[in-house]
Amino acid sequence: MEDKKLRIVVIGAGSWGTTLSVMLAEKNYEIYLWTHRKSTYNEIKNTRKNYKYTGNLFIPESVIPFFEKNIPFEKKIDIVIFAVPSHALREVAISFYKNLENSKNSIKCVLNVAKGFETGTNLRLSEILDQCLPAVLRDRISSLSGPNIATEIARKLPGVSVIASNNTELLNFLQPVISTPYLRIYTNKDIKGVEMGGSIKNIIAIASGISDGLGYGANTKASLITRGLYELSKFGTKMGANPVTFTGAAGMGDLIATCISKNSRNRSVGERLGKGESMEDIRSSMYMVAEGIGTTRAVFEIAREKNIEIPITECIYHIIYNNLSPELSVKMLMARKFKSEIEDLF
C-alpha cells in the first residue's frame, strides 16, 4: 500500500504552504515541503514547527522538509503544489524545471495556491506556469482560491475553496484529494475568473483596511465590499471571465473574508495606511507578502490599457505609489458623478 500512497510536493513553506502540508498529511499522504531557507528546513526537521509562519502548529513526521531540490523527485510524485509569492513564482518554477521534466510521466497535476499577478508582465499565475513548466505538464495546471485564511484552516474551522482548471478530468481527480472534513472543495472551469477574484479582492481589502484605520464604520465597510465586488466583476468580465464566478467562493466569498479578517495581511496594510503610516515603513516591517500591493499596480496598468473604469483600485494605486492621502481619496470617491448602481458589465 505504501507505493499507492499519494506523494505530494509542496513548493514553498510560508503560512499557506505549511498549513496545506499539515492538512494533507492528515489524510495519510506523503508530503515533501520545500523550504527556501536552510534555517526553516532545520527548524521543521528538528522541532516540527515553522514558528515564523505558522506559530505553534505541529508539523507531523509525514511532512518531510527538503532544501535540495532533487530529493523528493527521486520517487514517484503525483502532485506538485506551488505555494510561493507571485513575484517569486517564475524563478522558482524555472529552478525546478529539470526535476519536473524527470518526473513528468508520474505527475498528475500542478496546483498553484498563491494569489496575484506577476509584476512587469501582469500575467496571472497559471499563465506563468504555462510558460515555465515542461510542455507535457501544461494541460495539468490548476489553481486553488477562495476564503482560505491559513490560520483558520490550521485551526480546522469549516470553510470552502475552489479549484479551477480547463481540464475537467483534473478537477475530478483533485476535488476529493484536497477536500477535508473542514475544507469543502468546489470546482470551476473558469480559471481566469477564479484567479482574478483571488487577486483583485486584495486591492479591495486594502481599501477596507484604510476605512478601519480612518475610524469609519459598518456602512463604509459594506459600501466598499459591495462596490468592490462590482469593480472586480466588471474588470474580470471585460477580461474574459465568467461573471457568475464572482458571485461564488472565489469572488464574493474571498472578498468578504479578506476585507473583514484581522488575519488579512492586505487589510492590515490598509489599516496602517489609514492611520498615517508611510508605505515605505509598512513594507520594511513586513516579513510576509501582502499580494495586494503588487496586484494594485498590475490591475491599474491593465485597466488603463483596456480603458476599464475601476475607481477604488485607482485610488489605492495613487495612495500606494503616489502618496495620495487616504482622506482625499475618500472625498474623490464620494464626489464622483451620479450614475445608476448597476451598469452593463459587458
State the main characteristics.
346 residues; alpha/beta; 2 domains; 8 strands; globular; Rossmann fold; 11% strand; 8-stranded mixed β-sheet; 16 helices; N-(1-d-carboxylethyl)-l-norvaline Dehydrogenase, domain 2
Walkthrough of the structure:
The protein is about 50% helix and about 10% strand. It contains 16 helices and eight strands. It folds into two domains: about 1-190, 3-Layer(aba) Sandwich (Rossmann fold); about 195-335, N-(1-d-carboxylethyl)-l-norvaline Dehydrogenase, domain 2 (Orthogonal Bundle). The chain has an eight-stranded mixed sheet with strand order 3-2-1-4-5-6-7-8, with helices on both faces. The mean pLDDT is about 95. It is globular and about 60 Å long. The chain is of the alpha/beta class and about 350 residues long.
Please provide the ordered H/E string of secondary-structure elements: EHEHHEEHHEHEHEHEHHHHHHHH
Alpha-beta content class: alpha/beta
DSSP strand (E) fraction?
5-15%
CATH architectural group of the largest domain: 3-Layer(aba) Sandwich
Number of helices: 16
- Structural domain tally: 2
CATH topology tier name of the largest domain = Rossmann fold
- Unreliable parts: none
Shape call: globular
N→C terminal distance: 52 Å
| Number of beta strands | 8
CATH superfamily of the largest domain: NAD(P)-binding Rossmann-like Domain
Report on the biggest sheet: 8 strands, mixed
Kindly report the average pLDDT value.
Answer: 95
